[in-house]
Write a structure and sequence with these properties.
Structural class: alpha/beta
Distance between the termini: 34 Å
Shape: globular
Number of strands: 7
Helix content: 40-55%
Strand content: 5-15%
Number of helices: 7
Order of helices and strands: EHEEHEHEHHEHHE
Amino acid sequence: MHHILVTGASRGLGLSMVEHLLAQGNIVLGCSRGKSPFSHKNYQHFEADVSNEEQVNDLFIKIRKSFKYIDVLINNAGVARMNAFALTPFKNMRETIDVNYAGTFMCCQKAISLLRKSTNPRIINMSTVAVPMNLEGEAAYAASKSAVESLTRVLAKELSSFSITCNAIGPSPIATDLIRGVGEEKIARLVKQQAIPKMAQPEDVLNLIDFFVKPESHMITGQIIYLGGIS
C-alpha cells in the first residue's frame, strides 16, 4: 500500500488514475481547482490550484500534517490551449506555462521532504506526443511540456541520492476534456502519424504508472515514454 498524490484528480485521466490506484489498495490524495464528486474511504480530496504558490504550499502543509509522507507524486494537472501561434493570446500562453510547467515544478519541490520518508519514492510527470511531433497549433502547450521533460531529466539526477526516481509519460490523444476543442480531422491526422494508428485509452497510461511505481523499477529514472510509437 502506497500514499499517492495525484494532481488534476477530479475528472478525466486524473480521476481514472485515482480509481485505478484505489482499486490496488492504496491511499490516494487528489487535488484540483474545485471540489470532486468522487468519494472513497481511502481517498481525500484537496482544493488547490497548482499554478498558485500559496495554495501549493498550503496543500503540502495539510498533507504533511495528516499523512506524514507520500510514496508517489503524479503531476497530472494540465491545460491545453490549441491555437495557431499568431492567434494565441499572451494570457493563454502564460496560463499554460504556469499550470503545466510551474505547477509541476512547485509540486515536485514541495514533495521532496515527504518522498524522502518513503522506501519506494517516485515522481511521475505527464508530457505529450505534441513535443516530439512538433504539432502545429500547440506552440504554448508543447513548449510547456518540453519544459516538464527537461525538469524530469534534471530531477532524475538531482534526486537520485534520495533514491527518488523521476520519469514522464507522453500520451497520444485520449478522449478527455483536454482535447475536447480539437477538431476530429486534426486528431485523425495526428493518430495516423503514429506507428500504432489509434487513440490511446486511460488504461495505457495506467499501465505505465504501474510500471514506474513497481519496486523493481528503482533503476529506471529520467525516462520519457511516449504512447503510440512516437520517438
